[in-house]
């Protein structure tokens, strides 16, 4: 595989990752009903994530590449399993926040890699999308990270 083919493959991976994030956010936003600020921020993140999906699809189209349905399905499956694991616990909102924190940081790392690959392969349209997505993912990851102790303390106050 050459550099361009690698970038295309990683674009498909990013598309699958974002498609899974859309599914996961759609299923989990309502779990934050006791935390309206968190719920609203995740609604905003859902809209941004939908934009990321469209941006990645445009990049794939511009490069004449198809989307990998198998990768999308695999990533969506991982997003489907997680809610069932945490739904059995009283602290499910906190567990979802922790999972979102991990996933958002995973997305940051993926976009850092995609950005470097796009620069190396000389694919400016992918570089622009990766830069914009990376910036937004970092902002969301930082925000979630700040919310973890806030939601933890709030949860503990609720159980007393």
SS class: mainly alpha
Text of the CATH class: Mainly Alpha
Low-confidence stretches: none
Can you count the helices? Answer: 5
The major pleated sheet works out as: none
CATH architecture: Up-down Bundle
Task: Give the number of DSSP strands.
Answer: 0
- Alpha-carbon distance between the termini? 58 Å
Q: Which percent range describes the beta-strand content?
A: under 5%
3D structure, described in words:
There is one protein chain. By secondary structure, the protein is mainly alpha-helical. It has one domain (3-159): Ferritin (Up-down Bundle). Helix content is 86%, strand content 0%. α1 runs antiparallel to α4 (92-121). The N and C termini lie far apart (58 Å).
Which features would summarize this protein structure in a list?
mainly alpha
């Amino acid at each position: 595989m050459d550099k361009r083919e690698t970038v295309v493959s990683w674009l498909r991976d990013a598309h699958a990752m974002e498609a899974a994030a859309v599914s996961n956010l759609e299923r989990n936003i309502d779990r934050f009903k006791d935390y309206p600020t968190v719920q609203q921020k995740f609604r905003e993140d859902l809209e941004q994530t939908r934009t990321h999906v469209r941006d990645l699809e445009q990049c794939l189209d511009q490069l004449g590449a198809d989307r990998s349905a198998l990768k999308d399905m695999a990533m969506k499956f991982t997003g489907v399993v997680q809610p069932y694991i945490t739904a059995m616990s009283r602290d499910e909102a906190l567990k979802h926040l922790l999972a979102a924190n991990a996933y958002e940081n995973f997305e940051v790392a993926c976009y850092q890699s995609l950005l470097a690959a796009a620069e190396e392969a000389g694919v400016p349209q992918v570089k622009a999308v990766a830069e914009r997505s990376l910036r937004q993912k970092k902002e969301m990851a930082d925000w979630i990270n700040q919310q973890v102790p806030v939601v933890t303390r709030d949860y503990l106050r609720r159980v007393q």
